[in-house]
Amino acid sequence: MLRITITDDPSVQRWNLQGRLSGPWVAQLQSSWEKTHAARETRKCVIDLDGVTFVDLDGERMLTTMMKDGAEFLATGVYTRHLVDTLASRRRNCLFKFSWSS
Question: What does the DSSP 8-state code read for residue 4?
Fold first, then answer.
């Protein structure tokens, strides 16, 4: 199960994710993300992952999409910090490789 709580402030949209980001819950997160992406306009988006207990490969892909769309992540737990660091590192490596191949 995944709980998604979205709080809108004038300058920041905060997402609090709790539970497992896997299986059908990835589709739920993707749907919520797509619905709110255009409405966010210029506001900063912060994703709090501290309540996340597991992320599968599809969940990692969704978090990477959110990262590409400019989301910032809060992660203080060992698991979530490692996850965010790994995704950011993969993204940097892909961008670096792409820039050299073009």
Answer: E
CATH number corresponding to 2-101 = 3.30.750.24
Whole-angstrom Cα Rg for the chain: 14
CA dihedral 51, 5, 87, 98 (to 10 degrees): 180
> Distance from CA of residue 52 to its chain's centroid?
11
CA geometry: angle 3, 70, 56, nearest 5 deg: 45
Tens-digit pLDDT profile for residues 48-87: 999 999 999 999 999 999 999 989 999 988 999 999 999 8
Model-level pTM? 0.84
- Report domain extents, the chain: 2-101
Task: Tell which residue, 21, 25, 24, has the closest CA to residue 57.
Answer: 21
